[in-house]
Amino acid sequence: DRTADAYLKFMKTFEPLHGSIIRGETLSDADAFTARILLIHHYRRVVLRDPLLPYQLLPKDWPGRAARKLCGEVYRGLLSPSEQWLDDHATNEDGPLPKPNGAVARRFEGV
After folding, report:
1. Are 32 and 82 in contact, with CB atoms under 8 Å apart?
2. What is the pLDDT of residue 107?
3. What is the C-alpha to C-alpha distance for residues 63 and 51, in angstroms, rounded to an integer?
4. How large is the greatest C-alpha to C-alpha distance in the chain, in angstroms?
5. What residues contact residue 106 under an 8 Å CB cut-off, 6+ apart?
6. What is the rounded distance in angstroms from the CA atom of residue 7 to the CA atom of residue 86?
7. Alpha-carbon distances, residue 82 vs 1, 12, 26, 35, 85 (angstroms)
8. 100: Cβ contacts below 8 Å, ≥ 6 apart
9. Which among 30, 39, 58, 91 could bridge 62 via Cys, Cβ 3.0 to 4.6 Å?
10. Helix ranges, the chain (H)
11. Residue 99 carries which DSSP code?
12. What is the block-wise mean pLDDT of the chain (111 residues), using blocks of 10 residues?
């Protein structure tokens, strides 16, 4: 029950941002970067406590499925502007960060 409640809280928190993305509202690159970090941080806090039982053992209305779908859709909506912010501002000891590989865009694939 605690895990299900945590997924529901995650969805309640990020559904307004999802709606904004669907409506085509744009965030600044910096806001998209911040939102992406917070999205993944909050999602991971739930997933890391989830025993990830096989779907056959979960209730049909298990909120983990809907939370993953929501997270993937929001993530994809934030990806381009947040990567733009990184391209423009982020550095390491060698200078600008290297361009991301294809794995970044494939996160939440199939969702």
Report:
1. yes
2. 83
3. 14
4. 49
5. none
6. 29
7. 34, 22, 11, 8, 5
8. 83
9. 58
10. 2-22, 29-47, 63-89, 103-106
11. P
12. 96 98 96 98 97 93 96 96 94 89 81 70
- Residues 14/71, Cβ–Cβ less than 8 Å: yes
**Nearest one of 87, 46, 81 to 67, comparing CA atoms:** 46
Closest C-alpha to 58, from 95, 69, 92, 66:
66
Total Cβ atoms within 10 A of residue 70: 23
Q: How far apart are CA 57 and CA 73, in angstroms?
A: 25
Q: Which residue from 72, 57, 85, 79 is spatially nearest to 10, judged by alpha carbons?
A: 72
Is 95 in a helix, a strand, or coil?
A: strand
**Whole-number pLDDT of residue 90:** 92
Task: Give me the residue spans of the domains in the chain.
Answer: 2-106
Task: List the beta bridge partners of residue 68.
Answer: none
Taking the mean position of all CA atoms in its chain, how far away is CA 15? Answer: 12
pTM of this prediction? 0.90
Return d(Cα 47, Cα 65) in angstroms, integer. Answer: 11
Residue found by looking up tokens 């494939």 in the block: 106
